[in-house]
Amino acid sequence: SRAIKTNQDLLPETPWTHIFYNDFWGTLLTHSGSHKSYRPLCTLSFRINHAVGGMDPWGYHLVNVLLHAAVTGLFTNFSRILFGDGYWTLIAGLLFASHPIHTEAVAGIVGRADIGACLFFLLSLMCYVKHCSTRGSSLSTWGWILGAGLCAGCSMLWKEQGVTVLAISAVYDIFVFHRLKMRQIIPALYKRKNLTLFFSIGLLTTWGTALLGARLYWMGNKPPSFSNSDNPAADSDSFLTRTLTFFYLPTKNLWLLLCPDTLSFDWSMDAVPLLKAVSDWRNLHTVAFYAGLLLLAYFSLKGSSNERECNGKAVMNGKQNANGHSCHSEMEYKTLEVKSNFASKEENGVKKHETQKMQLPSTENIVILSLSLLIVPFVPATNLFFYVGFVIAERVLYVPSMGFCLLVTVGVRALYVKAQKRFLKNLVFSSTAALIVFYGLKTVVRNGDWQNEEMLYRSGIKVNPAKAWGNLGNVLKSQSKISEAESAYRNALYYRSNMADMLYNLGLLLQENSRFSEALHYYKLAIGSRPTLASAYLNTGIILMNQGKTEEARRTFLKCSEIPDENLKDPHAHKSSVTSCLYNLGKLFHEQGHYEDALMVYKEAIQKMPRQFAPQSLYNMMGEAYMRMSRLPEAERWYVESLRSKSDHIPAHLTYGKLLALTGRKSEAEKYFVKAIQLDPTKGNCYMHYG
């Protein structure tokens, strides 16, 4: 809703340059309540969607699916560099295409930020791969590294984690292209070997620092602030609780990649209970996860100590191994005949091409790259450098899942090579095929959950009952299932009793069904839970005003009008509620005959009114106040303004018609009365004024 439906940056009347100053939700990036999610290219794509198809969801979904297809193609192409042509590249591509963790990013429109970031992430990586292969032999190499830098910047402008591609490029250059071991990096630097390598790494570091610095400056040099429910661990007073929980969360994320059995649209609040003690059994998962990760990284970085390479072939203890390669299989270390155009020389008008044999990377090198691709893009979501506004978010795993898919593929390949018997090899292949099929089936089932809001929220009840029941209540209410909606709201409050939004929504439901005393009770609870909830003050004041408690209503409206929008998640909605409060306060003064006071309040409302606020009623009441004070020219001006802002606003037709009749312009007045009747033939008030 906030990213698209109510985002003013998507509307044609809003200058498109606003996209580059506002966050993902349309709030000014430097505002204290901004989410600081700076994703202008994603917002621009939404704006293009809006310009082409308005609010029809079909076009938005089509773009998401096409982007996912493009990313899958690029990822498969990148896998060829690591695995060559053959089954392993196909397996890596199919794993990525079918993984259920991608459902939220592809089926959920706002997930486009992750898909777009991944698209430019891969484009940047592919450009850098080209730079590596042409470095030192062609001027085009600088074009490729420039392309890598620009695509990395674009990836960051789709979503923040896109900038991590620069680190992945460095890992590729060191461990895959140059095949250096950890122990060889420092000596190579001291001996001034591979200076072009370190120059490229220096360029990546400089560009990455510049991008991060610009990003921090543009968002006002301040991190975002989040509510307790968004990230409960970050709000915990206990250092032990924060540490244990933050260490555990990556383990939970890896499990979602490995076994995406339980998925949810929202993992905030208490979806993942905090780890408050060392005795919590989940700490065993954490220890096992980090131990496995460190061992895998250690053996990959260390490499094999009892083998050396000779002309691209492994020699073990002075003897060449069975297939002549350091890989266990001819499929893995199959050599590629590559035409080396950049190394060609022209002698006597005839070009001579050198033929190079390029080996595919070793298993250890692919594991290092896969781990980097799994871990580094996920680092911004770990709360390591700054707190984030979620506990777990499946869409955030879209980019890291590439590393997971490569890791699974290289692991399966190692098992296949190790297997001596044909039966075992077939078993490995069959198991991998079954995994891909099961992932695909789970994706189809999960897609069904995303068919509509009701199914989506019902699917999340098991993981996050408070949030799921609350959202389900909103859906049921929109379907006019009042009793079911009330039950859903009460279920949400059973799991989390201090949710201001749910207390407010339940109060609104009760108010709309004329249960005013109960509605007031829940509005007061909502205000107690969140004193800045302007909409709760607004509806409280309206009920009090209708009950004749004018003094209480006046105090409530005044208190609402004084609430600042600092540190609020949705300042636009807050300003709309404050404007409505001032409008109703003006009406209160108007009904009491205090027209001067009413005008002062109306003018304040106009000053505080946000862009998306519909002002026709406010302008019409301004005209009414001037009319009662016999200041007819000013009254006419505001009636015209009301009709200009909404041409089918019936009250303005009637009030302006009355003014025209009063000033002797009867034929003009008749047009407005007739127009009002045409707009709503069932409204008796229109006939009365015309009569």
From TrEMBL:
| Gene Ontology cellular-component annotations | endoplasmic reticulum membrane
Q: Which Pfam families match?
A: TMTC_DUF1736, TPR_12, TPR_16, TPR_8
The residue spans of each TPR repeat are: 466-499, 500-533, 534-567, 579-612, 650-683
Keyword annotations for this protein, in alphabetical order, are: Endoplasmic reticulum, Membrane, Repeat, TPR repeat, Transferase, Transmembrane, Transmembrane helix
| Pathway(s) per entry | Protein modification; protein glycosylation
What is the top EC class of this enzyme, as a single word? transferase
The answer to whether keyword DNA damage applies is no
Localization terms from the record = Endoplasmic reticulum; Membrane
Which superkingdom heads the taxonomic lineage of this protein's source?
A: Eukaryota
Q: Which SUPFAM superfamilies match?
A: TPR-like (SSF48452)
Write the Enzyme Commission number(s) for this entry: 2.4.1.109
User: What is the protein's membrane topology class?
Assistant: Multi-pass membrane protein
Q: Does the keyword Repeat apply?
A: yes
Query: Where would you find the membrane-spanning parts of this chain?
Result: 109-129, 141-158, 164-182, 194-218, 284-301, 366-390, 396-416, 423-441
Q: What stretch or stretches form a coiled coil here? A: none
Q: Which residues belong to any copy of the DUF1736 domain?
A: 221-293
Family that this chain belongs to: Belongs to the TMTC family.
Name of this protein: dolichyl-phosphate-mannose--protein mannosyltransferase
This chain's source organism reads Pedionomus torquatus
